[in-house]
Amino acid sequence: MLSGERFLVKVDGYSAGYMTKDVELAATSSLIEKTTTLGTKPGTQERYDKLIYAYLTKLHGYICIFTDKGHGGLPYNSQNEKIVCCVYDELSAVSCLETIREGFDVKIVICYNSDSNLIELVKILNRILPKTIQSKIELEFFYVDIKNSAKNVMLIAVAEILCFVAKSNKIRKISLSLSPLIFPSDVVNNIIKRVFKKNFIPWLPLAGLDRDIFDNAREIGLEKYIVKIEKMANLKFNGKTSEKEAQKIVNQAIKTKKVVSVMIGPNNIHDILDSLKVDH
Q1: Numbered ranges of CATH 3.40.50.620 in the chain
Q2: CA gap 211, 6 in Å, rounded
Q3: pLDDT of residue 200
Q4: What is the secondary structure of 90-146 as a DSSP string?
Q5: What is this structure's pTM?
């Protein structure tokens, strides 16, 4: 459990002589007592950072590492196929999580434009990593100078970087964090055509912004960004895109590539930032 986290204890199953609610109360009290130095506190059904779920049988009790509703009943990695996805903002993080839930084995790329932006993205990424069900994962980081660029230039740059990573790792599919409900059709078509032109298969996990997607945003700690995600539909895009500017950004970003291998655990954030030599 990390410092300042809200936790929720939930117990189901068989109980004799006591109620499962009694176990929840006892476990919650014990955790409060044992984690006082961490500043953790009990959460509610609507708001918590970590769920501690236990299931009781007549002879044994089981504690789940994590629970998930899944996405349409698809088991993790059921597609038996790798795919590249990128985390560069709140919507792309939700898109990456959706890709995992659709049964793909994800290769995660992170594109950032400053140290503060990198730290925020790594915190979000920390919520996604356990969902990959891997003990060790390799991440690729790229510094992308897009502070003063148009939104469509950024989308093109990220798509080109994903194609570069896919080619380097011999991966056929690329997950694009594009939603027809947010982005103009010409922008979506342009990005998809770029991916096809490079002989990769584009995948759009965000076909529509339904309620499940916002629930997923809450799950990975993006509650405060949900309004921002909803308002992305009002984004304005420049009519023309400078190919020269986009390609220059991509070429510069590729030179900054850093690969970090992480043993997934409680110290993901510190391990990643230490490997990248970022003060935090």
Answers
A1: 82-275
A2: 23
A3: 97
A4: HHHHHHHHHHHHTT-EEEEEEEESSHHHHHHHHHHHHHHGGGG--SEEEEEEEE---
A5: 0.73
